[in-house]
Amino acid sequence: MRTLLLAGGIAALIAVPSAAVADTIERVPETDPTAEEAAPSGVTTTSALHAEGRGTFRFEGSGGLVVSGRGVVRVRDDSTGGDLVVTPGGFGAASAPGRKGVQRFTGEGMLVLAGSAYTVTVAGRFTADAAPTATHASSGVARVTGSGSTILQGGVPVPFWASQRILLTTGPMSVDLAGRGAREWWTRPHRGGGKRVTVRRVVVTKRVEDGRTVAHRRTVTVKRWWKWDGRAPGATWRLNGPAAGTVALTTISGRVRVWDRSTAKDLAVTVPAGTATTTLKDGSVVYSGLRGASVTIAGTGFRMKVRAFDVEGTFTPVPGSLARSFVRGGGTFDAGAATDVRAGGHGGVRVLLQAGSPA
After folding, report:
1. CB 81 within 8 A of CB 159
2. What is the pTM of this model?
């Protein structure tokens, strides 16, 4: 009986076209809560980075930083010439710098910092804004843990419920990523189990008209369900902005999804002949079934998402343009002066590619 079932299964597999098998393995439609469209629109920041939440915030880099909230703030000057300027407001008296040069502020208040190299760690409730100064660009690495949200310049709030790594730098950017296995997401409970997480909270505040309360504060929570899929591509590379420039993927085994957000609709994508192409409801185009292929993407305003088992490529932005990126998977990437940065799994790394050059 087992022999008959096995033979029947092999015969059925042979009868199915290879293209259909590839489409079954590579599901094109995705619900991805870490994409920018998952967050409410209309909320952004002009700072390089805006972070708010409850937990810890750590920034190691240069430029200006404004931190407010309640808790404990530790500041260390890492510059050679000791050029860090700290302006406290509302906090209690700062402790004297210890052996490692760390100053400690406690209580509730605000700190304004500016310098070429420093490290700040906040524990408690915090709101932080990083921005360039007249003498130093905003560059460095930030990490947030706990719960809250972060916004990269020109982007939208992206929540974090565990931890999040952020890199502030410039282009160009190159990646060398690989991996197998990823989360599969649903908008509703799915058969076979799955874990539920919060990907967005929208707060509706109280509104009063003519002395009457017409709306009360309430929180609308958006949930997503996920389950681990060991067959899915494990490397992800995104570009948002919309980005302006050229992407050259020297090798990719997986799929590429692009959105043309330019006014002139000038997006140009070059893929190998015979590549499967799917146009989704939102107007994006997916090129799937790529195996060791070379792909080129160029335009003045596009978004890109790569899901692959293996991908190597570079992004060269148009001079003076800004872009946001996200990388996840095994391997490393380079961006501006930051080299051999490990992407890591789970939360990955969010990257701001600024127009200027970090000091």
Report:
1. no
2. 0.81
